[in-house]
Amino acid sequence: MSAAPGPVRHKGRGPAVSGWVAPRGRALGGRSFALHRITGIALVIYLYVHLGVLSMLLIGESAWGDFLSVVTAKGFLAFDVVLIFGLLFHALNGIRVALVGSGYLVRHQRALFWVATAIGTPLLVYAAIHVFGGA
Amino acid sequence: MRHDAHVLIVGGGGTGAALAHDLSLRGLGVTLVERGELTSGTTGRHHGLLHSGGRYAVNDRESAVECIEENRILRRICPGTFELNDGLFVAVEEEDLEYVDAFVDGCEACGIPAQRLTRDEALRLEPNLNPAIKLAVRVPDGTIDAMRLPLRFFATARRNGAVIRPYTEVRDLLVHDGLVSGAVLLDHVTGKEGEVRADIVVNATGPWSERVAAMAGVDVPIRPSPGVLLALRGRMCNMVLNRLHKSGDGDIIVPQRGLSVVGTSSWVVEDPDDLTVPEDHVERMYAEGSKLVPAVRSADRRAAWSAARPLIGSKGADTGRELSRTFKTFDHKETDGVEGFVTITGGKATTLRGMAELCADVICRKLDIDEPCRTRETVLLPHSAYYAAAAA
Amino acid sequence: MSTTDTRTLRVYRFKRGDGAEHFDEFEVPVGPRMSILDALRWIQLHRDPSLALRHSCLHASCGTCGVQVDGREELACVSAVRDHGETITVEPLANLPILTDLVVDVGEFFARFPEHPIIRASEADGYVRLEDCIECGLCLSACPVAATSRHYVGPAALVAAQRLLEEPRGADREDVLAWADRPEAAWGCHLGFECARACPAEAIPAERIMALRRELAR
After folding, report:
1. What per-residue confidence (pLDDT) applies to A20?
2. Tens of each residue's pLDDT in chain C, 218 residues
3. Are strands B115-118 and B135-139 parallel, antiparallel or unpaired?
4. Can you list the residues of chain B whose pLDDT is less than 70?
5. pLDDT digit string (tens) for B185-220?
6. B247 by DSSP, 3-state: which?
7. pLDDT digits 0-9 by tens, C147-195
8. Do residue C52 and residue B148 have CB atoms under 8 angstroms apart?
9. What pLDDT, on the 0 to 100 scale, is given for residue B335?
10. Do residue A6 and residue C16 have CB atoms under 8 angstroms apart?
């Protein structure tokens, strides 16, 4: 219509990727999409951190011992539970996405989310008990 | 083939669209301005009936003949933009039966194919009909996509060189010494004013015709006559359903995708911009519509709105229904001594192409241009081509 | 009958002349069945005639009046004012360039569709019926993938492609499959499902996109 294209409104604030997680007007589908991205990125970051930390073993036993006392503190264990939530969510929602994305059970995408929740919640509780109990 | 003539069309409804198309096919330069989105006036709001002319076969044969001719032409030049399932005129009550013979005779006289059906045949075709109906007559009605059909005219016109400018409002006409030479425009996209010059300015603004004509210092006998329409959720019929009687409120149900549109009513106003939606009229749509299809009564309201028809006639009429529904082109040189200004008005959505042909003939005569009309046979581009044709 | 009930409408404004984006606030008197479009047209008539709007059919059939109301995609003509709060924010649809005020560049929307002209009558059910999709763009605005990707064709275009496979009406099946089998087409969907939620017609974008993928996978 005119020479230069006009401005574009997008869903979030600031950079365009905020449009992935913008909450206004979103429903279950959009929110699980957002959470899948957040957990995916978080798990990748965690993987690098984890590998970096493991490399500390190369330094020696005393460094490893200091490290152990940090990560077995209660506060840190809570972070472990969050991590496990992220793992479980990403894995179970990932199965939902793989199924629906290949054209199976599309009409039941919401029901699949709740099934995943039903499977994941007892697993998370079990893991949390053992994380805190085993310390 | 290009002629050294520029026509400014004011009004982006169906009439303006068809006129822009006709004139650009004849090789004239065309600019069309519309203050809002294309078809945002009356054209976009109508119930979408592709008229067979049946409704006018008894009392207004001129209109009926116009309708059936244009109905056939539109099917040829715009394939794919209609729901073509025919229509039924249904006798619901005993009094309706008195009307049947006149109706069928009228259709035959106007060249409208009309087939008598028994009650059972009608119910087989349309199971949601009121089981108490007496009989029905089948005619070639259909459903138009009210916005996309004119958009096909705009698309083709644009491809052929017409400049189409929505969101551009006419603030005033340039008039001097009994000659209209152009218009002062306000562009709502930029917010800036400008001027455009033309050999002829055409007033194709429907119920706003009086307002634009006043800018040229002339008067046109137009009464904006609104009516209420009601869209219900659910596709309750595939054929257009009409009540078999003399015109009345709520006597038509037009299917449109997943909706059923019931219409309409009629009153007269001064200002076509400030239309209300009287709830008692909406209630009347429910009441009359459910006489044809009982399920109407309990259907969900998707929307209720008003659209103003441009009806020609002398001032002083009350309800608007008794005014003629034919269309006219007013050459204001003849009627008011003002050169360079023409008003085209009246008519229905179905007759847009025919109205434009008549007006284009007048314009070419005024400009001493000898070009035949080519719109009867030219197949139109798809509506989406309008956007692709930008800056052509 | 006068109403003392009013709402505040915060409306996005942009004119190419000065190029500045901002919001204007208007106090609008509200009636019992007023739609967001009614309120916007009231503003046009009584407060600011320069407000540019799209509308045509006034009954959710033409698809031109799509806007974001409080961040959620709706057709203004069937969105009730009473369903919203005291202050209502109205913005144009997301993910398409803005022409002016609440009007987006529809050409950009149609440019994403498969090349075959969009014939709009279907005979699939034994009678003729116009396609469900009313090309309103609400799905594209709601889609989180479209938020970051200008090249993702979007749900409506994929629905059109799937409909061409279901009912070709002259389209070439191989052409449509080739068009769809690209990362920015059928494989660009990451199952946000916001399209199905936003769709005001019965085009069911999410389901049709998955049906399209099943076709591609065959």
Report:
1. 76
2. 455 689 999 999 999 877 789 999 999 999 889 999 999 999 999 999 999 999 999 999 999 999 999 999 999 999 999 999 999 999 999 999 999 999 999 999 999 998 766 667 888 778 999 999 999 999 999 999 998 888 999 999 999 999 999 988 888 899 999 999 999 999 999 888 999 999 999 778 988 999 999 888 87
3. antiparallel
4. 1, 314-326, 389-392
5. 999 999 999 999 999 999 999 999 999 999 999 988
6. coil
7. 888 899 999 999 999 999 998 888 889 999 999 999 999 999 988 899 9
8. no
9. 83
10. yes
Q: Is residue C195 part of a domain?
A: yes
- C73–chain A nearest CA distance, Å: 8
Quickly tell me which residue has 């206004």 as its tokens. A24
Please judge whether C132 and B258 are an interchain contact, meaning their C-beta atoms are less than 8 angstroms apart.
yes
Residues in chain A: 135
Token output for C68: 């974001």
Domain that holds residue C148: 107-217
> Which domains does chain A possess?
26-133 (1.20.1300.10)
Q: Which residue among C94, C97, C193 places its CB closest to the CB of A29?
A: C193
In chain C, how long is the greatest CA-to-CA distance?
A: 63
Q: Do A5 and C197 touch (CB under 8 A)?
A: no
- Contact (Cβ atoms closer than 8 angstroms) between residue B357 and residue B373: yes
Q: Does B148 lie at the interface with C, CB-CB under 8 angstroms?
A: yes
Q: Do B80 and C119 touch (CB under 8 A)?
A: yes
**Contact check, Cβ <8 Å, A8/C94:** yes
Nearest CB among B38, B186, B390 relative to C107 is that of B390
User: Looking at the domain assignment, is residue C135 inside a domain?
Assistant: yes
pLDDT (0 to 100) of residue C160: 92
pLDDT tens, B253-288? 999 999 999 999 999 898 999 899 999 999 999 999
| Same domain, residue pair C60 and C118 | no
The residues in B 263-322 lying below 8 A from C, measured between CB atoms, are 273-274, 277, 279, 302-305, 307
Share the mean pLDDT of chain A: 83
**Whole-angstrom distance, CA of residue C89 vs CA of residue C104:** 17
Please give the residue of chain B at the shortest CA–CA distance from C170: B80
Contact C45 B274 (CB under 8 A): yes
Chain C residues close to A109, C-beta within 8 Å: 191, 193, 206
Residues C183 and C206 in one domain: yes
- DSSP 8-state symbol, C197: H
Q: Is the dihedral of CA B201, B206, B209, B212 positive or negative?
A: negative
CA distance A10 to chain C (A): 5
- Are both C22 and C51 inside the same structural domain? yes
Per-residue pLDDT tens, chain A, 135 aa: give them: 445 677 888 776 666 677 777 766 678 888 888 899 999 999 999 999 888 878 877 777 777 777 777 777 777 788 888 999 999 999 999 999 998 888 788 888 889 999 999 999 999 999 888 887 764
Same domain, C88 and C143: no
Q: Tell me the one-letter amino acid at A60.
A: G
Distance in angstroms (rounded) separating the CA atoms of residues B157 and B146: 18
CA atoms within 13 A on the CB side of C176: 24
Domains of chain B, earliest start first: 6-43+147-221+323-388 (3.50.50.60), 86-142+223-312 (3.30.9.10)
C10 reaches A (C-beta below 8 A): no
Run of H or E residues at B10: strand B6-10
**Closest Cα in chain B, distance from residue C54 (Å):** 5
The pTM of the full predicted model, rounded to 2 decimals, is 0.91
First to last CA, chain A: 66
CA triplet B350, B355, B361: central angle to 5 degrees?
A: 155
Q: What is the pLDDT of residue A14?
A: 65
> Do C160 and C193 belong to one domain?
yes
Residue A105 forms contact with C (CB below 8 Å) = no
